[in-house]
From TrEMBL:
This is LysR family transcriptional regulator. InterPro entries: LysR_subst-bd (IPR005119). GO terms for cellular component: protein-DNA complex. Pfam families: LysR_substrate. Belongs to the LysR transcriptional regulatory family. One of its GO terms (molecular function) is DNA binding. The keyword DNA-binding applies. Residues 9-194 form the LysR substrate-binding domain. It comes from mine drainage metagenome. Keywords: DNA-binding, Transcription, Transcription regulation.
């Protein structure tokens, strides 16, 4: 993350809005490194998503935001940080858990919980758009808002969870196994958002 290149409101203060659905150790490491390279830094991290994140960046209340939203609005600069592949979370004893990777077709007739990293629902729409390649339609039974809630749902035997690899790594469960999806579903994209206006 090019945190050091951000236009900040003051030399030793950095205000970041973070969508909690994509919070991970990768982001924490980058922000920790920034703190270590600045004397007595003032790092402020707030949980924001959707339109609230954009509004506060535009108003100068935040220096930047980290999100899975794809933004093309005037006055906003969006830099892709990394891509995050989708994985399936299965109960340890599930018949599909023995496979090293899954196809979308493997998920047909399964109850699914989807945790999209983008609160606008773009991730879920991507899944639905790729369903024509599957003989039987997928059934989305639950839409949890946190990875922990999804893992609890899966561990309880309610069905299979779909989330990104980074989301899954952050809440590892001993009785839940993560398996990559072999092909057919584009990865989520994580972006750094900032205003192209001078810092306030």
């Amino acid at each position: 993350l090019a945190i050091g290149e951000l236009k900040r409101s003051s030399k030793e203060r950095l205000r970041i809005g973070l969508c909690e659905r994509i919070a991970c150790s990768r982001i924490a490491t980058a922000l920790s490194t920034w703190r270590q390279t600045h004397s007595d830094p003032d790092l402020q991290i707030v949980s924001r998503s959707g339109r609230a994140l954009l509004a506060e960046i535009d108003a100068g209340l935040l220096d930047a935001g980290i999100t899975a939203m794809c933004i093309t609005e005037p006055g906003m600069v969006s830099d892709r940080l990394w891509t995050d592949p989708w994985v399936a979370a299965l109960p340890k004893g599930h018949t599909l858990a023995s496979k090293r990777a899954l196809e979308l077709a493997d998920l047909a007739r399964e109850l699914l919980a989807v945790l999209a990293p983008d609160p606008s629902g773009m991730g879920e729409r991507q899944i639905i758009e790729h369903l024509p390649t599957v003989d039987s339609p997928l059934f989305i039974a639950e839409r949890p808002t946190t990875a922990l809630a999804l893992m609890t749902w899966v561990e309880a035997g309610c069905g299979i969870g779909l989330l990104t690899a980074t989301q899954g790594e952050g809440v590892a469960h001993p009785n839940v196994i993560l398996r990559p999806l072999r092909r057919g579903l584009p990865p989520a994209e994580i972006h750094l958002l900032r205003s192209d206006a001078p810092p306030r």
